[in-house]
């Protein structure tokens, strides 16, 4: 099979490069999701702690609203940065049709995940406040548990809508596979 350890290492290196290239868009998406989640966790924990004197339902609702603002700001900026070249035509203008289709896929994927996220987060946050947890800790625990559910749901939605399986991506993948094999 392999004559030397060097051949084995070379083959595994090529396989790893192929895997990383094939899943690059999913990895970038998840990086954007988790970076947004981390920023939202930190900001919402601080805000929940600062609003500790409010009624529990108000603290919970305001904290979640602040979390949304911080998450979507970070996620939106990273997603745009990672995908801006994908939506440009050869003349440098925006491919509005492709952009619109992909935005609908993202909204669908995120929309379903949001329902799961909100129900999970609000329930856990409110419950933990009522049993005496500190507001900042309540926010962190509720956020982390609901964020895991959110990330799973977004990835399932992206797979279902085939966000990264359109013709453009397939053409790009075929041309770049030649580059991977050649290196």
Tally of separate helices:
6
SSE order in H/E notation? Answer: HHHHHH
Number of strands: 0
Distance between the termini: 21 Å
Morphology call: globular
Please state the average pLDDT score.
Answer: 82
Largest sheet features: none
Secondary structure topology:
Blueprint: H1 5-22, H2 24-50, H3 56-83, H4 96-130, H5 135-161, H6 167-182
Helix pairs in contact: 1-6, 2-3, 2-5, 3-4, 4-5
Structure overview:
The protein is mainly α and 183 residues long. The chain has one domain. It contains six helices and no strands. It is globular.
Keywords:
183 residues; mainly alpha
How would you concisely characterize the structure shown here?
With 183 residues, the chain is mostly helical. It contains six helices and no strands.
């Amino acid at each position: 099979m392999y004559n030397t350890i060097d051949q084995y290492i070379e083959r595994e290196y090529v396989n790893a490069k192929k895997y990383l290239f094939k899943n690059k868009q999913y990895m970038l998406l998840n990086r954007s999701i988790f970076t947004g989640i981390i920023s939202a966790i930190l900001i919402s924990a601080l805000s929940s702690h600062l609003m500790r004197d409010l009624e529990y339902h108000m603290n919970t609702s305001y904290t979640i609203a602040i979390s949304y603002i911080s998450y979507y700001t970070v996620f939106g900026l990273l997603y745009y940065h990672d995908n801006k070249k994908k939506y440009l035509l050869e003349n440098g203008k925006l491919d509005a049709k492709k952009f619109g289709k992909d935005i609908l896929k993202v909204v669908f994927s995120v929309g379903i995940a949001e329902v799961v996220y909100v129900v999970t987060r609000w329930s856990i946050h409110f419950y933990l406040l009522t049993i005496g947890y500190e507001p900042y800790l309540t926010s962190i625990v509720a956020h982390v548990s609901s964020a895991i559910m959110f990330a799973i749901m977004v990835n399932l939605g992206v797979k279902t809508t085939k966000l990264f399986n359109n013709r453009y991506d397939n053409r790009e993948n075929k041309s770049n596979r030649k580059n991977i094999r050649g290196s």
